């Protein structure tokens, strides 16, 4: 165990190593700590022994003696339970090394023992070991670093099996005290299991002081004059006053004073509930639920999952210092937002195929000056507790005090919309990075969310509200999900029918192909010159295009890493993710892709797929950056698809993510032809498209297997929620608001099996 990197960090950090070969051992190495004793107990009814550790310093290793033989040779002993006592204070925590029963028929008895262990103490509890059980397809506990699976049967393919049997988990008290817990999987050559390394830092870590940014606190809404509410110190003073009154002699004034103090304490708790509800992003629970520890748990969980501890650069070198990670992020995003702009001739050549779609009536609507009514409609259509931008304000503030701020806010927004004048700081934007997976390794595994000021949100919302009324006249039929009166499930239904046709087709002469493309960083790579040219070619007037480009080109970004903001920089391309206007602008740009495909179809160089003789041919389906292209399985048509992609990329600078793109070829096509098509397009050939827009893209023999991910998500949600923090009424609200809504999206397009629905009801009843 290495010492702390810096002496100035007064940190309480510890590690546990669990190794499996011929024995089972636990190694504890706490930093800057002195342990007074360790108590050890086993599950075979043996007496609890205590080992004195007086004088053992934190840099030394403390080894717990061997308790049982790994591999299940001694089935009577399945855990060791260790109480770790801090000699300097009364704080303590528990560690349980667990071994799951290999025999499935006797496994329930072992689980009951583990449940019994969990209820023996309210202290922070860490449990780790070989559970001999797979919970679900996609598990989600703490951040995992290293190999994902922990056990392999070491057989040759196709009989090789990988599974995650070893894991570490903790109770809610542990998670609150140690929010930065990390589990590392370390491969060892002498075992078919990996070694678990659990590392954490306690909450008494001395953190670097950072400049505090203004954030509107929802608790201030409880006061009529929007003053700051009582602090936590005031709450403690109220509780102390209540205890003193309770110990005083009984009289009438004492009772009146106690009632007044009790009401003030309840008011402080309600304000704290609003604060933690805001931090935990729990919007489904009704106001008045006073169990604030439930919100604390969610807030700590979000903090732990969103923490970025280290990243790997382009040369596969790991960096852990905050300054080094900042450098990697800044280089990555500056590279993306730097324009290697296409020439005007290249853009005009591609846009020459675009036909004007904006009519005279639409121009009159767009040319009409924006009104105060539109501004009010925009702000009141926003969710009250949306994450704040650089201004730190929430829409709920404007909802609450609109009668006071109406004139000033409306004047500022209309100044942008009608006069096309905006201060640079108004368009400052924070880029918040959210991990797409557990323990992200590269910047590409981080999802960027843009948070802008409320004033700019209102202006973008006003423009978007006008555009959505005319989308059905501007967009092609390949984008039904964005047209008013149509649904996203229309795309899902069409894709399912077309993929089913390809799967069941057995034509030997000429097959069909379904290509699924994913655009890499689609919003961030939109060239401003290409966007402006597209809007003008579609028929939008110059004044409206100037307003759109004002909102797009005056932005300045600041990256946010673990709550700390970097300096601002000005991009040269890209549109904001999370902005109300951005989806409309992106689909206008992707409309150029539709015109390229339609032009190729018009010349007979590309043929779509028809599921029947009289059915219309479908060549492509679009939804944001998810693209499906259908054509015949010939080298000529695949070559045309490649040419279209190259021409579109040269003008718009969009890039295809080949790792997420797949190609499915219908039956009857010779293997040699499949290999040729794969080489021409350089996209992997797969047996099927598993999902499209989050739903199955093709059927299978087992319908329950198609929707197994829904059950896994429900079980995952239940595992994340601590039921001890919820009342029975709170559980009921949680089931109605969260669990019952999980299968709704799938049920809008598919009829789920009765047995599958019963299994979901069983999970909800278990919760």
Automatic annotation (TrEMBL):
<feature type="coiled-coil region">
    <location>
        <begin position="221"/>
        <end position="248"/>
    </location>
</feature>
<protein>
    <submittedName>
        <fullName>Mitochondrial protein</fullName>
    </submittedName>
</protein>
<dbReference type="Pfam" id="PF00078">
    <property type="entry name" value="RVT_1"/>
</dbReference>
<dbReference type="InterPro" id="IPR000477">
    <property type="entry name" value="RT_dom"/>
</dbReference>
<feature type="domain" description="Reverse transcriptase">
    <location>
        <begin position="443"/>
        <end position="694"/>
    </location>
</feature>
<dbReference type="InterPro" id="IPR036691">
    <property type="entry name" value="Endo/exonu/phosph_ase_sf"/>
</dbReference>
<keyword id="KW-0175">Coiled coil</keyword>
């Amino acid at each position: 165990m290495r010492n702390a990197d810096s002496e100035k960090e007064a940190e309480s950090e510890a590690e546990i190593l669990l190794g499996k070969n011929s024995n089972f051992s636990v190694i504890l190495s706490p930093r800057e700590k002195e342990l007074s004793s360790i108590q050890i107990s086993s599950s075979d009814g043996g007496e609890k022994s205590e080992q004195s550790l007086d004088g053992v310093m934190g840099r030394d290793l403390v080894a717990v003696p061997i308790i049982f033989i790994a591999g299940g040779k001694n089935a009577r002993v399945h855990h060791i339970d260790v109480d770790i006592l801090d000699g300097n204070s009364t704080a303590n925590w528990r560690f349980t090394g667990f071994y799951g029963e290999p025999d499935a028929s006797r496994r329930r008895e072992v689980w009951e023992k583990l449940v019994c262990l969990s209820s023996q103490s309210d202290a922070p509890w860490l449990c780790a070991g070989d559970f001999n059980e797979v919970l679900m397809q996609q598990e989600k506990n703490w951040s995992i670093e290293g190999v994902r699976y922990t056990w392999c049967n070491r057989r040759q393919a196709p009989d090789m099996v990988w599974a995650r049997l070893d894991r570490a988990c903790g109770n809610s008290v542990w998670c609150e005290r140690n929010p930065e817990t990390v589990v590392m999987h370390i491969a060892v050559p002498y075992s078919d299991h990996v070694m678990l390394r659990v590392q954490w830092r306690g909450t008494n870590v001395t953190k670097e002081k950072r400049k505090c940014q203004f954030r509107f606190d929802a608790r201030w809404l409880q006061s009529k004059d929007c003053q700051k509410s009582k602090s936590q110190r005031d709450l403690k003073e109220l509780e102390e006053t209540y205890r003193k009154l309770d110990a005083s002699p009984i009289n009438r004034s004492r009772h009146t004073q106690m009632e007044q103090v009790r009401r003030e304490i309840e008011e402080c708790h309600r304000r704290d509930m609003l604060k933690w509800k805001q931090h935990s992003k729990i919007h489904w629970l009704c106001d008045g639920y006073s169990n604030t520890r439930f919100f604390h748990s969610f807030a700590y969980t979000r903090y732990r999952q969103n923490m970025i501890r280290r990243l790997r650069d382009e040369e596969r070198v790991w960096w852990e210092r905050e300054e080094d990670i900042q450098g990697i992020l800044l280089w990555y995003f500056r590279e993306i937002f730097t324009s290697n702009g296409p020439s005007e001739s290249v853009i005009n050549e591609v846009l020459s195929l675009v036909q004007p779609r904006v009519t005279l009536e639409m121009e009159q609507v767009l040319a009409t000056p924006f009104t105060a009514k539109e501004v009010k409609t925009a702000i009141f259509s926003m969710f009250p507790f949306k994450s704040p931008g650089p201004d730190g304000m929430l829409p709920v503030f404007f909802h609450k005090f609109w009668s006071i701020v109406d004139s000033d806010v409306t004047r500022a927004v209309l100044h942008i919309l009608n006069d096309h004048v905006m201060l640079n700081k108004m368009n400052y934007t924070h880029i918040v990075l959210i991990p797409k997976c557990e323990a992200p390794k590269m910047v590409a595994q981080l999802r960027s969310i843009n948070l802008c000021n409320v004033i700019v949100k209102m202006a973008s919302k006003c423009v978007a509200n006008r555009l959505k009324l005319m989308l059905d006249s501007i967009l092609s039929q390949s984008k039904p999900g964005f047209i008013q009166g149509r649904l996203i499930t229309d795309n899902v239904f069409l894709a399912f029918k077309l993929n089913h046709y390809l799967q069941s087709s057995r034509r030997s002469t000429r097959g069909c192909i379904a290509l699924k493309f994913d655009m890499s960083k689609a919003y961030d790579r939109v060239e401003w010159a290409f966007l402006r040219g597209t809007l003008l070619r579609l028929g939008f007037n110059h004044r409206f295009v100037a307003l759109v480009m004002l909102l797009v080109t005056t932005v300045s970004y600041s990256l946010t890493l673990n709550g700390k903001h970097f300096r601002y920089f000005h991009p040269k391309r890209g549109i904001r993710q999370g902005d109300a206007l951005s989806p409309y602008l992106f689909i206008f740009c992707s409309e150029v892709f539709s015109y390229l495909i339609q032009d190729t179809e018009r010349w007979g160089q590309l043929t779509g797929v028809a599921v029947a003789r009289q059915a219309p041919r479908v060549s492509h389906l679009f939804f944001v950056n998810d693209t499906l292209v259908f054509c015949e399985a010939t080298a000529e048509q695949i070559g045309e698809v490649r040419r279209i992609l190259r021409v579109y990329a040269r003008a718009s600078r969009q890039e295809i993510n080949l790792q997420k793109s797949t190609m499915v070829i219908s039956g009857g096509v010779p293997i040699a032809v499949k290999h040729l098509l794969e080489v021409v397009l350089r996209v992997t050939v797969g047996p099927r498209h598993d999902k499209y827009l989050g739903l199955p893209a093709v059927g299978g023999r087992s319908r329950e297997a198609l929707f197994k991910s829904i059950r896994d998500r429900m079980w995952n949600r239940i595992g994340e929620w601590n039921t001890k923090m919820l009342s029975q009424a709170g559980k009921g609200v949680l089931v109605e608001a969260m669990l019952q809504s999980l299968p709704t999206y799938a049920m809008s397009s598919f009829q789920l099996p009765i047995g599958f629905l019963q299994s979901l009801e069983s999970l909800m009843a278990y919760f």
